[in-house]
Amino acid sequence: MYKKNLFIILGLILFAQICSLFAGINFDQFFVDKTMRVDYFHTGTKGFEVISLDKVYEEPAVISHDKKMWAGNKKNLIDTMNLGKYLAKVIDVKSNQIIYSRGFCSLYGEWETTGEAEKGMYRTFHESVLFPFPKDKVQLVIAVRDKENYFHDIFSTVIDPNSRFVNRERHTPAYKVDSMIKSGDPHKKVDLVILGDGYTKKEMKKYKKDLRHFVDELFDATPFDKNKDEFNVWYIETPSEDSGIDEPRKNIWRSTVFGCSYNSFDSPRYVLTFENKAIRDIASLVPYDQIYIIFNSERYGGGGIFNLYSTCYSTDKGERSHWWPDYVFVHEFGHAFGGLGDEYYTSDVAYNEFYPQGVDPWEPNVAIIQNGHIKWENKMEKDTPIPTPWGKAAYDSLDKVLRSLDRTADDYSEKYKQIITERDKQLEDQKFFGKVGAYEGSGYASEGLYRPFMDCRMFSKSLVDFCPVCNNALERMIEFQTE
Ligand SMILES: [Zn+2]
């Protein structure tokens, strides 16, 4: 009898231990509901990088809630998505366990694949990592993937949250903040903050009109349409001194709040900002998980970096007679929010060596074929071959014609439309159109990299939906941040 009870007790203890393992990290045991921000400098050249600490902050009270808070999910503290070139890990010093982790990408990570780094030039970028405010001493570790995509630690520091080395000042001017969509508790919602760059005080009306338009556009697109109530959308009114943004290749320079610029990494339509501190200081006025910067320009451009920010131009010439900015807005958010890669392969992008040969990219929608298998094959029908034929040669020759068109000609948009229609028709005629497969041509490479669908919001410059694989990745991310 006694033995039997002992077994029951031991069984119960074991059961409780297993339960606690699966329950994940208990937020209240390790954190208080505030945000810690660690700023650092990321320096290096091709093949060498170093991270040096700048400042540690206790983020100020968010204006919108009149209190300090952590905007992220309190339940899913450990990142299970395995996305991003970098991984930040927070380790509780006492128990030596990881209590928070998050994958992300960075400006440095993109820059190191450009020609400048290739030539051995050194550069420095300012970056931040945010995590819930720890109760006790923690060790912050930053890891980077090697060429085979395994993580290696490149930075480590111990932070005492109760020490004088944590800056607690309010570091942000009190810009006006408001919300466009209010769905509920920021801990359980994806909090998107929209910032405007290159809008003057007089143009605040235009800024609000632009952002309203884009937010409508985002929540018209799948899977965001079905998940609108999982999002809070905030915006901050940040008037710039000048109207418009920098265009170095045209010798146009503007003084703006966030310093957005065309020709980033010397790519014509790539728009980024390197003013990380300004962005983080201002965004901290609201609870946020994602940052979107709309810049006031009629010229095509944008950018999106996973878990950093997205940028998009505001209007196309002719007051939105064109849908290109709408395409850009959602496409860039696919990068920044979902960690999706570009599925296109002919575009003239600045960076090379982005995907080392023979290595399966970490992006969920770009892949190599390994021994006849591809990572999303569980979403494919059994009779779909790997690789999947899709009339690539015909597509490529039409694409060449498209690229050779004279953009300044009067009949440019007419001819453009004509070719696009022909190209779409040619895709629709393919046997495996509308089916998940392994279609060659993806991630800027015409050969060796594959995409899951013939067409997708990450592939063609059109308002087509995200493909099933991208859609699934975005839905997983929404669930991860909101459950
Ligand atoms: Zn896709």
CATH superfamily of the largest domain: Collagenase (Catalytic Domain)
Associated small molecules: zinc ion
Q: Segments where pLDDT lies below 50 for 5+ residues?
A: 347-351
Q: In the CATH hierarchy, what is the class of the largest domain? A: Alpha Beta
Largest sheet: 6 strands, mixed
Keywords:
single chain; 483 residues; alpha/beta; Immunoglobulin-like; Collagenase (Catalytic Domain); six-stranded mixed beta sheet; four-stranded mixed beta sheet; 10 helices; 24% helix; binds zinc ion
Can you describe this structure in just a few lines?
The chain has ten helices and 16 strands.
Blueprint of the fold:
Elements: H1 2-23, H2 27-30, E1 31-45, E2 48-58, E3 86-92, E4 97-104, H3 107-111, H4 115-118, E5 123-134, E6 138-145, E7 151-159, E8 166-167, E9 176-181, E10 190-197, H5 204-218, E11 231-237, H6 276-283, E12 290-295, E13 302-305, E14 309-313, H7 324-338, H8 392-404, H9 412-428, E15 439-442, E16 445-451, H10 468-482
Parallel strand pairs: 2-8, 10-11, 10-12, 12-14
Antiparallel strand pairs: 1-2, 1-5, 3-4, 3-6, 6-7, 9-11, 13-14, 15-16
Helix pairs in contact: 8-9
This protein binds zinc ion.
Protein described:
By secondary structure, this protein is α/β, with parallel strands linked by helices. The chain folds into three domains: 145 residues, Peptidase M64, N-terminal domain (Immunoglobulin-like, Sandwich); 165 residues, Collagenase (Catalytic Domain), CATH 3.40.390.10; 82 residues, no CATH class. The chain is 24% helix and 25% strand. A six-stranded mixed beta sheet has the order 9-11-10-12-14-13. Strand 10, helix 5 and strand 11 form a beta-alpha-beta unit. Helix 8 runs antiparallel to helix 9. The longest helix is centred in the first third of the chain and has 22 residues. About 1% of the residues have low confidence. Zinc ion binds next to helix 10.
